[in-house]
Write a structure and sequence with these properties.
Layout (H helix, E strand, L loop, with lengths): L9 H14 L3 H14 L28
Helix pairs in contact: 1-2
Length: 68
């Protein structure tokens, strides 16, 4: 596959950079993951709470109270 540069507006790049920084990866790595997820037809793979940035918890698991 050819590596073709794709222009990204400054505001979009700033959002991508913030998301990448929160995950501790580069913008390029984040974009590759997003493109791979889109190619598979699904959303990003769920991560357990230990892999998320401080202050973020997973949607399931012991950290989330059960709905009554």
């Amino acid at each position: 596959m050819d590596e073709t540069p794709v222009p990204i507006p400054d505001a979009q790049y700033e959002r991508l950079a913030a998301m990448a920084a929160a995950r501790g990866v580069s913008v390029e790595t984040l974009l590759c993951g997003l493109i791979d997820d889109a190619a598979r037809g699904g959303g990003p793979a769920p991560r357990d709470a230990d892999g998320l940035p401080l202050g973020v918890c997973g949607a399931t698991g012991p950290e989330r109270p059960a709905d009554d």
